[in-house]
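Note to self: keep these together.
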Amino acid sequence: RRLGEVGVTRLAWQMNHPAELDDAEGRLSQHAVGYQRFREADADRIVMRDPDGLTVILFHAGEPAPTGKPPASLYWYH
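Structure:
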């Protein structure tokens, strides 16, 4: 979607433990799903697209944010 249009552009799922992200990566590889893994200071994440082109992000935050919100970099990822 373009800026200002209504609709969902991405979904983000927070993992409770880093091992859950590793398990997800193993399953994606096993089923030949295309994805990218990013290890950054504020979060470790896997980014992929669903069949409709929607961006799906699985992430584990390095440190919980005091506000309870996801890491800021998730809001800027394109």
